Amino acid sequence: MVNSLGNQYFSYNNKIEPASVQEKTTESKGVSSYDSRQNLEQLSFGAFWKSRLFNNNVSSPDDKQMYSEIEKSLDRETKANFDKLTDTGIILQRNSNDGSSVLENLYKILKNPRHDGLETSKILSQTINTLANPHIITQSFGDIPPEKMRDVVLARGVNGNNQPPENTFSLEDTNVTASSCCVAASVEFSLAHKKPAEFARMVEGLTSQNPEIKTKVQLDKITDKPADSLSILDDFKTDYKLLDWNTAEVTIKPDKNAIIRAQIQNDFKDPNERSSVDVMMQSALMNLGSEDAYNSLVDKRFGPLSTNNEGLTEFEKTFVETIVNNESKISLTYQIVDDNQRIVGYNYDFNAVQKQLIDSLNGGSDVIIGITEADESNRIIGGHEITVIGYQQDADGKVVFTVNDTDDDTNMPITVSASELIPKIHHAGIPTKLVNLPPQEEIGYQILQEYNNMKTQPEEQAGIPI
Prior knowledge:
7-stranded mixed beta sheet, 3-stranded mixed beta sheet, 17 strands
C-alpha cells in the first residue's frame, strides 16, 4: 500500500560516509561467493554435477538440460557461484511474479538474444554472481570513455516521454561522481536477496532486445480502493493495462539512454563500478518512480511529483517497492523536521522503531530505510538509503542490526548498533500488515490526502535533497 505518514518529503541521493553508520568495512566490491543468507560449508568445486542436481531435486529432464547448458557456458569463477545457487536450493526457487524459476530465467538469458552491445556471457555471469552475493550490487557510475563519446553526443536532448524539452544536458553533466540511485539500488538488492527468481526474471527482460518487463500488481496492494489505485498509477505515468477488477499488468522500462550506460559498462567496467545488469535494473526502477522522466546519462529525474531532480522521494520509493514486490508497504516517517531542515523530534519512540524493524525482519522482509546526517545544530546535511537485512540481540537485550549499503564499496554486509542507527532513520518501508492503521474506510482517504499534500507542497518543502 502506497502511503507515507509524515509531513515532509525528501529526495534520498546524497552520500553519507560509511563510517557514520558502520562498524566495519572489508574488501572492495567484486565477484564473491559470500552469502549473508546462509552460512554453509562450501562443497568441493569438482563435485559431480548429476549428484549435485539430484541432491537438490533438480531431476526433471528439462531442468537437467537447462542446468547442463548453462554450466557449460560459464567461466570457472561463475561456475563456482552457480554451484552454490544449486547447493543452497536458490536455483529452483520460484518467487517471481509469474512463477518462473531462477533456473528457467537464467536459461532464457543464455538462449534469448540480448540487446545490442550487451554480451550474453557477461549478463549471465553478472546475474549468477549477484544472486550468489547480492552485496556486490553498487550504485556507483562508470566514466564515459572517448570511444563512447559519440553515442553520448548523439543522445543529447533525447529525454524520456515526460521530460520537458528544456531539460537537455551538457557533456559535463554526464560525469556523474555522486550517484542518486541509492533507492533503486536498494530495491535491486532486496530483490536479489529475497526474491532471486524475480530478480533473474527482471534481468532477462530488461537486457533483452526489447528492454522491458511486465509484472502483475493487485490494486488493493496500492490502496484499498481500485479507483484511488488507478489514480496513483496514472499520476506516475505508469504503462499498465487492467486484467480484471483488481489486477493491473504494469510494464517497467528503463529510460531511453540507459542502454548507452549499460553498453559502456559491458566494455569498460572498472572495479567498484556498476555492472550492465545494475545499470538496466536501477534505470528501470528510477524511471518507474520518477514518472517516466529519468535520464541515465546525467542521473537526473524530472517529473511533476518532485521539484528536485535527484533521487526519489519517500512516497516515490514506496510506490516502487509496492509495484515491484506486489506487496502492501507503508512508509513510516520517524523524524520530525522543521522548515529549516532541523530534526526537532520523533514520531515514534526508540523501542517502537526497533520493534517495527525486528517484526519486519522476522516476517521475512528486508527493510529499506532512509537515514540522515545532521550537523551540530541538528540540521540535516545529507541523506541516504540503505537496507536492514538482519539483527542480533545479546543477553542484555541490546540489538545490533545488519545492513547493506550500495554505496560503501564493499561486497559484504555491515553491522551497526540499534542505538546508533535508529536516531538516524528518517523513514522506513514497513509491511502494512505490521502497522496499526486506522479503520479500513479511512485508509484510502489518508493515502490520497498525504499524496495530495506532497504534490501541493511549496518548492522549498517538496523533494528537498538531503
